[in-house]
Amino acid sequence: MTALPRRIIKETQRLMQEPVPGISAVPDESNARYFHVIVTGPEDSPFEGGLFKLELFLPEDYPMSAPKVRFITKIYHPNIDRLGRICLDILKDKWSPALQIRTVLLSIQALLSAPNPDDPLANDVAELWKVNEAEAIRNAKEWTRRYAMDN
Amino acid sequence: MSNDVEERVVDEVEALKAILMDELIVRTNESGYPVAVETVVFPSTADDALQQYVCLTLVVELPSGYPDVAPVVSLRNPRGLDDSVLGRIDREAKEKCESYRGQAVIYELIELVKEHLTSSNLPSCQCAICLYGFREGDHFTKTQCYHYFHSHCLACHVTSSEKSYQEELDKLPAWQRSQHTLSPCQVLCPVCREPIQCDMNLLSSAAPPLEVENARQFELSDELRSLQRQMAALFSHQKRRGGIIDPEAEDSKLLLVTDTTEQEGDDEPPGPSLLLPPQQAFHHNSMTVSMGSSVPNRGDWRRGGRGGFRGRGSSSSHRNRHGRRHHQAAVTFR
């Protein structure tokens, strides 16, 4: 494997030295391009109190192309599908090399605070979110309690 | 407030207008009295804009009672300046406001900022692409929007933008590709997404930035190891509770779509059924990536990695399959 780009080294160091509240990201022991991530559910969202595991992979041409991110913990959210894939513009065509691991994870945390059922990835979830928001939020809370709580 | 004081403030603003002309923006209240002034300050370079590498917008709010009450200064849209320089300017501006209490201070503030910008008229920020600073001898580029990049780094960005543009183009059907209405590749500033013009011949000849060359190699610390252990523990905990997505099981659910009677027992979460018609499910396959040999493929949690990241049929962007935009991210650029 070729040497790790300095930018990745620098980002990793900064993630340790100046951690983002509610977010931790640690590189894998055998592959420094692969990060184990925990995002805590934002306050006042149905995901509050949850610890969500994600995986983040920096492709060969990072930062020229976006990191690949996926939820590992089950989550009930209209923009995240059953496989944990995330519908977020900056992970696709709106990627910019000025974005970083930390900004990507902050955006994902923001997506938990502001679900957008009008641009769904999980159609069934989005549908319920639109026709019966109260029930959808109850489901999201129940999934959070069942799958993402620490106790 | 006496008319005398009001008149002094109006006079001060009028004098500034005479000096700065249309570079000064004055905000007034309903009765036309100035409540704030705003101007973009550049370093003194004998008006040679090419030599100006830094700038910022100075906003001076004039509270009721100014100049006996100190104005409120804010420094906005800084370009090419790092936080320590900004902090110094901010501190000195506040001191100046205090020491000029009772007197006209706006022009003094503009001069103060200008002096600082002139003495640090080299980008002291980091290159947003490689995250390293600018050193003597580095080739760097200032965009029209006053953002800085090592020429080498910007060249990589331009090449990559052109490549993705070409890839998008190749996905179009031939009849669309041949139309001349397609807009040409427009490179955007990585920081603010303004369109930028670049001379690729100049950029691509630049050497990689110096500081990057000298950076230290990364080593796994004890702190990281302990975090890794915590994460592994959380994973096993969630896995025991059935909280971990199993991509293979999810895939087979899609194949069993007609057999909706099959339940997963106690683990079945509340809410509508997870079963989706196959064609709908394939619409979601936006994260189509082949990680090649660098995929970690051992251990339990990595099952997710394989499932989520492996190549899933022909690649195309989420936008193309969905025919709509991605969810807007809440990202604040500097």
TrEMBL record, chain A:
InterPro entries xrefs: Ub_conjugating_enzyme (IPR050113), UBC (IPR000608), UBQ-conjugating_AS (IPR023313), UBQ-conjugating_enzyme/RWD (IPR016135)
Family matches, as PROSITE patterns: UBC_1 (PS00183), UBC_2 (PS50127)
Residues of the active site: 87
A Pfam family reported for this protein in Swiss-Prot or TrEMBL: UQ_con
Domain (UBC core): residue spans on this chain: 3-149
Cellular component per GO, a single term: UBC13-MMS2 complex
Keywords (A to Z) from UniProt: ATP-binding, Nucleotide-binding, Transferase, Ubl conjugation pathway
An individual GO BP term: protein ubiquitination
Nucleus listed as a keyword: no
GO MF term set: ATP binding; transferase activity
CDD domains in UniProt: UBCc_UBE2N
Family the entry assigns: Belongs to the ubiquitin-conjugating enzyme family.
Name of the protein in question: Ubiquitin-conjugating enzyme E2 N
Source organism of this protein record: Cryptotermes secundus
UniProtKB/TrEMBL annotation, chain B:
GO CC, one annotated term: nucleus
UniProt domain RWD: residue ranges: 11-120
S-adenosyl-L-methionine among keywords: no
Region spans: Disordered: 289-334
Domain of life: Eukaryota
Keyword entries, A-Z: Metal-binding, Zinc, Zinc-finger
Compositionally biased intervals (Basic residues): 318-328
Annotated InterPro entries: RNF25 (IPR039133), RWD_dom (IPR006575), UBQ-conjugating_enzyme/RWD (IPR016135), Znf_RING (IPR001841), Znf_RING/FYVE/PHD (IPR013083)
Molecular function terms, GO-annotated: ubiquitin protein ligase activity; zinc ion binding
A family per Pfam: RWD
All residue ranges annotated as the RING-type domain in the record: 127-193
SUPFAM superfamilies: RING/U-box, UBC-like
GO biological processes: cellular response to stress; positive regulation of metabolic process; protein ubiquitination; regulation of gene expression; regulation of protein metabolic process
Record-given protein name: E3 ubiquitin-protein ligase RNF25
Organism field: Cryptotermes secundus
